[in-house]
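Practice set, problem 2.
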Amino acid sequence: MNLGKITNGSVVLFCLLILGACQVSIKQKQQEKKPNILFIMSDDHSLQTFSTYDKRFIETPNLDRIGNEGIVFRNSFVTNSICAPSRAVMLTGKHSHENGQINNSVRFNGAQQTFPKLLQQNGYQTSLIGKWHLKSLPTGFDNYEVLIGQGDYYNSNFIHNGDTISSDGYVTNIITDKSIDWLENRESDKPFCLLVHHKATHRIWQPDTALFDLFKGIEFDVPETFFDNYEGRRAAAEQNMSISKDMDLVYDLKLLDEAGDIQTKYRANYAYMLSKLTDEQRKAWDKEYDPIIADFKRKGLKGKELDLYKYQRYMQDYLRCVASVDNNVGRLLTYLEQNGELDNTLIVYTSDQGFYMGEHGWFDKRFMYEQSLRTPLVMRYPKLIKPNSQSHKLVQNIDYAPTFLELAGLDMPNDIQGKSLVTLFKDEQSGWRDAIYYHYYEYPNEHMVKRHYGIRTNRYKLIHFYDDIDQWELYDLVDDPDEMINIFHDSGMQPMVKKLKKQLNELQVAYGDVDLATY
């Protein structure tokens, strides 16, 4: 009997030990679980229309939540402010001259190394949904559902793993629907990396009909530089992205009158886009814009009054597109929260570049001036990032790929040119870059922004416009944050010019962008 009791007790003790070991093993696995990655990127979303950064125009509570519960990067920049190059930089962690995507006309080399491929090879389930815009088909993704080219705001076609499929509805909602559907049906035993790339807020800023009531009757503040005369800045004077001269009344501002009195360059393009609306969508569309068209024709505006009218119409529709993005980001956050994945997911929100909201009288991007160079960037990952964190370090979109790879526990490829932002999550600031490098190549093109490269430090910006022009510009961003006064030729600034040129050359050598004659 005693032997039996000892044996039974040993069995119980043995079972308890095994159970404890299992619990320790489960706890270790939970602690070792790799983070999911949700990378949300909109198109042409300006810093000025994200209320974490600027509260003049719109409140963006869902986007703000990411920064409030994580980190806000106050000095986030791109390397090349145009759609396809920016996307290639994000995927590869390399400048445009290294990944080959120097402008929108180039076909992306999908055979090259990208962070989704590296994650996929190391156990991540990867998916891309939304705008791709790189001509070649996506590689490195277990699933992709991408728009064809720019896609359409309404009833857009997608390429789903090689097959073309249609959709019914507003594209920002559809992209989110598809993203949630993929999350619902993914392999839940694997960490995921999901890239959600919105078409909004790209030109021509077609809002969701459900949001037509937003911003009605509101007069938006006009930027102080709206009537800029570009004195001392030849490249700025020779662009074709002016609200006054280049914003199309029909195509951009939806003033397609039935009588045909408003004839513009892109009238036919807009009429074709409207022809793709369903009867219900077109009815709501006409109900919104017909009174606006009638009012515009009645006013007969000219000169500065017309310019200011165009600005107000532009802002209204653009901001409605922002509101849709914000609403749909909220849907994704809610889904992750309800499914227990919110705190184990690195959530990133950014834009492929910044955008002009009337500054210097412009819309669009491309220039190295602040509004198109800067981009919003917020991240949430409570396991590493304290709530309400801020970083004022100079970061760029070359830094996204190394950040994701480090968080996934992967070795960093030697050829990646960016730096992991995980260092800044931990508030380890020493050794970070003190200047960023920029290079824009897409000239000649519709907007006629000259080719240029340059360097930006915390205080100064030096730009060289080249190719069919040879012009240098220097700005003191403390004394002249609007970049209105080119001080490159000021005698007192020549020591700084010499210093910045040397620093610029060092960056070009470090990044391998030295043979400018090849572009």
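Problem 2, part (b): a different protein.
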Amino acid sequence: MKQKSLKFFYKNPIITGLFGFLLTFVLTQYLTYKDFLLYQSSEQQTVLDQKNLLEKKIVYGLRNSFSAIKTLAYLEENFDINGDFVEVAKEILQSNQNIDIIQLLEGGAIKYVYPLEGNESVIGYNILEDPSRKTEAMQAIESGRVIFAGPFELKQGGIGIVGRIPIFKEDGFWGFAAVVIRLETFLKMIDYEHLEKSEFYVQFSKTNPDTGLLEHFLPLPQEEYNGFESSSSLSLGKWNLTVQLKKSTAFNHIIVALILRTIFSMLIGFFLWYLASIPAILEAQVAKQSRRLKKSNERFEYATMATSDAIWDWNLLNNQVYRSKNFEKLFGYSASDFNSNHNFWDSKIHPEDREKVNKNLQETLEGKENFWKQEFRLQKSNGKYSHIIDKGIILRNASGKAVRLIGATQDISEIKANEKALFKMSEELLKRAQELELSNAELEQFAYVASHDLQEPLRMITGFLNLIERKYNSLLDEKGKQYIQFSVDGAERMRQIILDLLEYSRADNIGQKETVDLNELMTEIKLLEKKLIQERDAQIIYHNLPKVLASKSPMRQLFQNIIENSLKYSSSDVPAVIEISAEDVGMFWKFSIKDNGIGISKEHHEKVFQIFQRLHSKDKYTGTGIGLAICKKIVEKHGGEIWIASEENMGTTVFFTLKKEEAENLG
């Protein structure tokens, strides 16, 4: 039946070519489809990562608001701060950039507000009498926790979000402590201006508890987007966060593969048509190969002595087999055993492999193939099994019938054992990598939560100490005032250490890379450091800095930390001059940031990149000694290196390398 099928294909080359084309086309386009799904999956993961990042930013911003509200509520419940409201509110507001207004309500009526200017109209406004505010206010009273309401139109104008926590005195409801975050502050907190220009569409929405209607924070899209969309609920304010990729590029990535694979399928069809058209050429090649093998028979014995494989020659007409002496060395059988006939060899094949080996061999001999290869297990004279590979060349007569099979047997037991051990080691490495990835994610989340929770008692300590100093200033001597100042300074330094440690832990997560124009980045940094630049009468010089493929936020932190150090440690008697340049060094850009500051002695060059390593007292120069350690981590996460060249009183040059964009694309 099989021979008839082969003859049919040889006699109908067009059908043979068309069949080959269709079969190859289906298989290759299936691979193209799988590639398409892979790109789609990558896009989906990008959207999920962006959504998780936004959630973290919102949690980070609003946790500080938690602390502010809780602090105000605690002070009112325990100390009745009516007379000190302005001082307390001012202190809280100065320590939290994400809060615009602080309120204290007695019952449902707003009793105090800070700042008062521009907010006079809300004094006396009773939220419990306003149907649009009452529902969420009552939810806060019933739950006894912070509830964020909004966004809605504020009484004093504008759109905002209000966070409230109930205050209880003498086991009864007294009023609320509240903070107001204007919408523009909230948008700045999540870096909406950047999101608006990015590849993502972002929307915050909420179901109005009174009307049941869906309300949107942000402008609705002006066009339809076709990318992957993901939504999740934020319990902080019962909001819904939606992130969508504006445009999917998955099909664009596979269009070239689709075309090339179609062309490949056509070539396969043409090739099969060509082969089916010229069977005589194949027969001539077989005859030629037979003649070559006949001439090489006299060299056969010498070849068997020169190889570690076991050579064999099987006469298919009389079923006689000749095997070289290497068989005895490899498998332990005597010449009289394995040279008698093929059946002896067949009996030593592992029972589970025997049927497969014989079937494959029979099909090959009955077909038109000239080569045979098979892997199986063979029992040695000691009863153990070896993994072997048998390879042979088939000699056929003029009618195409196989008459002789000549080949070699190779023992691959050691290779199989090594493969098994290597596979097991790869599995262990993959498992360890997954465990490390999970551990890193948990540690990062812990760092976020722990840093914010640790800051809350520090703020309370600082607030109470400032209140004590103001309240009892006339009763304290100089020593008492000095002790209070030492405590406040210690708490502030501890808070800065916590913030720096958070930044250091976040440096591991460089986020999504993009093309960053370093000239634009320097413009941003000069605006951020404008005050310090003016104080040092500093000049920052750079020209035509390159674009790099990197995560923008860590890049800003890298350049800003180094420039801040140059400004901080500048000489007091001359204006600061900072020169930034980039050098093309093959697959990398080599950057140098040079200053004319106080310099660093050579024995401290490596020390400056270690965490908490300071070379000067805190009284002379502020800081925690983490800045350059963060820089080192950012550079290394981008595949580069960082080092310094400096001498005391001779300035400092910080060098670091970053991969070029084409090098990043090559991986």
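Answer key, part (b): The chain is about 50% helix and 20% strand. The longest helix spans residues 13-79.
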